[in-house]
Every structure is written in structure tokens, then in C-alpha cells.
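<purpose> Linking amino acid order to shape
<body> The protein record starts here
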Amino acid sequence: MRWIALVATAALCTACVTAVELSPAIAPSASPPDRSSEAAAVVCAPDLLAHVERAQGYEVAVGEPLCSALQRSVQGTYRRAERVAAPYKGQFGRVVRFYLTSSALSVRRQPDGELRATYSVGVAVETCGRDLKPTTRKLVTGTGIVSRDARGAALVKEAAEAALQQLADNMERLLVAGLDGPRVRAPDSERAQR
């Protein structure tokens, strides 16, 4: 009897969860005029790819949209960026690995009646040379806060996408600042798109 009550409670709780789907096309806002002449591998850690954030009845699959946004940051910084699970030595000039360090979603009703959605995310970025030995490791964050009288799912989506956008912009700036060696100009068509 107890088992049936637990199953019924679990079913009711999962029925109350609203899935929020994020855009898979988030990219840095601006493209640097030139980029490294090297090809880079993008590696997203398994826990980053599988991450789902849950709060106050909302469920956001963050992993794939986050990894895609990070890959676009690398594409804007290197001649070519390819997402791979496990690069081997010498395959790429650089390997850029991403690890999820923090993720927090909050949805709350404000005293004035407005709904506030806040999402913050932190990612560690580790760059490696062609020998796969780490050369740098830094932390990059993004935060999105949306507050207004609207449907909760729309606010959660907007806050999460704003955080991923900020993270992608910050990541590209960090990667550009750390570039060394020869550079090539970004294609005109790519600069015009942004």
C-alpha cells in the first residue's frame, strides 16, 4: 500500500513540471576581426551535456544549448572548431574543454506581484596544446534576470537564454585575449551575419 502511495505521489509531481526548451542557436553577439589560424577541438564534459536544471516546477535541459553556445564561441576565435568526444594528440592545434562548475535557477513571485526568473551558470574552460597538456584553466559565468508580469515558462526561457548569451560573449572575449601565434581574418560573410 505504501508503495502505491509513493508511485502516485511521484506521478503527480512529474505531471506538474513544465519543460522549458532553449534555443539551440545562441552565439556570441560580436565576432572578432581575426582569429587564430589553428583548428580547435571542442570537448564538453559529460555532466555539462547531461545537465538539466529544475526549480519551482520548471525543468530546463541546459546541456546541449550550453555546449552549442560554447562551440560557437570557439568557432569565432579559431579558424575551425569541431566538437569531439576525445581528441587524440596532434589531431588539433588546440583543444578547448568545458566543465560545468555551477548552475542555479530561481523562480519567485515578487511583493509587487511580478514574477522573477533568475538563472546563473559557471563554466570552467581549459585550453590544451596539440599534446593535450593543459595550458590554462579559467572560469567564465553568465547571469540572466527577468522580472515582469508574464507566464513563468516564458520568463524562465528568457532568463536562461540571457545567461547563455552572456556566457558565450564572455567566453569568446576570454578566448580571444588568450590567443597566441598567427591569425587569419574572419570571412566577410561571417562578420556581416553578426
